[in-house]
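Protein modeling request. Please complete all fields; requests missing the sequence field cannot be processed.
Requester role: graduate student
Desired output: 3D structure, token encoding
Chains: 1
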Amino acid sequence: MAAGCLPNGKLTAFLLSALLIWPQMSCSEQAGGVEKAPTTAPATSQPASERILVRIGDKAVVTQADVEKLLRSMPPEKRRAAAHKALGTVLSNKIFAVYLDEHPDLVTQEDIDREIEKDLKVARVKTVEDLKKGLEESGVGWDDYLVQTRIRSGHSKLSQRGAAQSMDEDYLRKVFDENPDHYNDTRVKLRHIIFASPATATPEEKKARREALSRLREEIVSGKRTWDEAVKLSNDNTRTIGGLLGALPRYMRLNEALMGAAWPLEPGQTSEVVDSGAGYHIVQVLERIPGRRPFDDPHTKFVMRSIMQSKPVVEAVEETRKKHPVVGVQPIDMASIMALPPPATRPAVKRPAQPTTRPTGRTAASRPATRRTAPRPATRPASMRPATRPATARPATRPMGAPPAMPAGVSGARPTSRPS
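Delivered output (420 residues):
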């Protein structure tokens, strides 16, 4: 392998783990996809690096250039559909980067060096210079790689804290006893209505969407409008099935803000307006299905440990968002994204032609004869053949469900012996 080249089989997986840390899907993406609130970016000559889409308090910004950087490696026909997902990725990463800036002891230079050593093995290269060259050939700058490596290490360190805590059996039992319905497979059947509000929406736009959904909720609760009528206004593909989200457990299947609002409700009740980050929702509980899985069930402990392992990362992001509110500035410039050049393709590597003749000295004439001179008989001589067994009356095929050599329809019957 040439220095600086990542092996083709490893490149995609390596870049996804090293650069693209996608956020968890929101409930509406799981259920069928949010239709973004209609926004049109005005024509502008503003450079992408200066076009601010979102502010994270006064700590960081997300620009048009940040989003375009993730989309450059995508086929042009997929970029429009992926633009808001790319924005969510950049926003999540930058929020967590702000958290790391405010907790500098969490990830040290030694931690980053260890991650780089792991990536050298994954990429199958020997030196950092080779790794840099391979990343550059794939369109990933070294500075971007270091930022994402720091974020990846931070996620790992927080997850390890949660995992260590979850190994305390007494603590695990205490958590279960406080809220058994959170972990014993209790489920609630939900439906929702969403008025989408992308991260780039301004405070005024968000306020208008929230107030519109609040008025719709009042009409539903008062009986002026039925749910089936109201759900047609939802900006989500689930409106075709009444906004149904399914029967879900307390954790790990739905946006935490939505599940936290829905869980205390009784069947038939409708939540207040909830902000999920993808938009504003109202959630209605249709049914509560009690769970019966005890604490000592291995699956219960597995679920609890998975939840506790991911919890520190979720709490870190929520802490940062509360301290530094996310404020939309202006929509993504889709025209600029669609004008991006297609991703560069690597020239095909030509393999050396394979020899079509045997090497010198290995001709057929020089080989010693190894074939038998006398052909094997096609069948054994008659004197060596086994005696023919008498014909027995057997069905051509076994009846469905009967085991071999067992009378059909007789449950548990012992195998019959063959005739002698």
